[in-house]
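Re: Re: token formats

Sure, here are both.
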Amino acid sequence: MAKYNGYVGTYTKQESKGVYQFTLDTEKKELGDVKLAAELNNPTYVTVSDDDQRLYAVAKDGEEGGVTAFSIGSDGGLTPLNGQFAAGSPPCHVSVDRDTNTVVTANYHTTKIASYLTNEDGSLNPAASVVEHEGTGPHERQEKPHMHYAGFTPDEKYVIAIDLGSDRVISYAVNDGKLDQVQVFKTAPGAGPRHITFHPNGKFAYVMTELSSDVLVLHYDEKDGSFTQKQAITTIPETFEETNDGSAIHISSDGQFVYAGNRGHNSIASYKVDQDSGELTFIEWTSTEGNWPRDFVLDPTEEFLIATNQKSNTMTLFERDKDTGKLTLVQADVYVPEPVCVKFTSGK
């Protein structure tokens, strides 16, 4: 296949109208066909079901926040199914399990994570479980819990919630949509953990910290859902003294390379993975050719990486060397208003 279908979740504070759709032409090595796919208020994070049939987006509706379900058409178009909302700010993260049975969200502002069971058509039932958190950290931005991520472990036995506000990675057993806390991993004080990605072998996990700009290499114990830290490695140069907020983190499907985003340094940091220990060796920094790279994604072929620069309203396309992990700029300044999250359908 030469063309792949992608989506961008956005803020809608300025020019954006919602979720945008685009294509990647792998033969031409080009991003294009950017258009509005769904008009929605602040759909900052989206996720696509494993079978490419559903898209879930966080959203705001008046004074309420929640999550909206869409069906994905053969042309990639989005048709609304329904939404579930509650009083307060919208969530900042959404995930769905492989069978599209359970959707989970994390809310930066309300301290909550929530889970929703789906119907056969992918629409959402009212929340099956809502967990409110407590705690603080030493940083000025850690005055209360700030839940920044909720997603499933590779075996889907657990949901992992990441709390930037109290430096915690929390494991929940998930059973028919119900969430029960079973483990808590504490990062260094003030690290501000943000997102997590798992090695395909299921033994290692990599946490991006927003406040300290590190990647934490963790051992994951699937028996009880616990984590043990093995390494912390910086994502920015020692000489960089301006503000940097760590953003997204992703791993190649062969487990060979980890990539981490930097807002401020405006780069993607690349690392080689030791397959025995899971530990990382730094490779290089690559400029995202824009301001404030909030997220990035590997395309379905993993021959390309696309970064979204929130403050410069652009996407940037890189070609990726699968042997070295290195990135080469192909296309910059592709206009998308207020881009935050970027996801692809798999094209299966």
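Second one below.
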Amino acid sequence: MSLYALQRLTRPGQLRKVLVERGTEPLHLNFLSLFVALFGSYRAKVDFDLVVRQQYAFPILYAADAAKKYGYKAVTILEFGVAGGAGLLNMCRIAERTRKATGIEFRIYGFDTGTGMPEPIDYRDIPESFQAGDFPMDQDRLREALPDFAELVIGDIAETVPEFCRSLGEDAPIGFVAVDVDYYSSAKKTLDVLSAPPQLYLPIVPVYLDDIGVDGSNPWTGELLAVKEFNDAHEFRKIAPFTLLRSQRIFKNTQWIDRMFAAHIHDHAYRSSSYKGESQRLLPNEYINWHGSKQKGPTKADGDASSERQAERARSA
């Protein structure tokens, strides 16, 4: 286990969270995790939630696999709400490990005001949980720590997002968006990053909504309200919980699963009725050659023979 992972366990509530999530899982899976941690591949460690910030590891690997499927060599991932930068630096580390595992390159952008949170607008920003000035940033130190493939975008999201979208190219589409801006008003501006031309995205973009877990969060406040309004305003762009994700995960009690959504780019060329895959797919039918399941019906020859027997019996009578 890395020093960083040990440091995270010492944070208030973190050890209890791990005990609740892991301690309620089957014992054999926890023992198997030890083997995977020591000898498993990077992909196996993502599957077993052994990478710090599983909520980033899963969608980044998902984006890389999707990019490879559709023939891209690079993908863009975004974090909104950088604060001290621990999440952004961890995102960079995960992206580097994913690059080594998949061959896909990453471009990472972290969006933040750089000065902490602004004033809340009203109850929709859940001011009982957040306030102005929370989560300031040391921009100089963070910039020095970032790798070459990552950069900060500082300023009001309402201004930086449209400018950023105009600068994007089709060679590295957006493949993952992490939203950790706390307020409804900030999340509403953030989700505009999903309103650009469809070729600037992968067909399905994982979206992590970090702050829907606070007590005051509901469909009428915070990030969930921002998602509802985004869906209402866009005919061909919809954000919804990631389909059947819990049933696909080995460990099912972890909180991040409930916060993982997906932006569906319904007007994407790869989701058009004219799109054709690499080859036609066929479903095998292992029962078609299973002779024990065959029950032959009467044939024409059987019918003719039966008629002749009936006629012979009639003549004999």
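The chain has a mean pLDDT of 89. Residues 206 and 262 are 4 Å apart (CA to CA).
- S.
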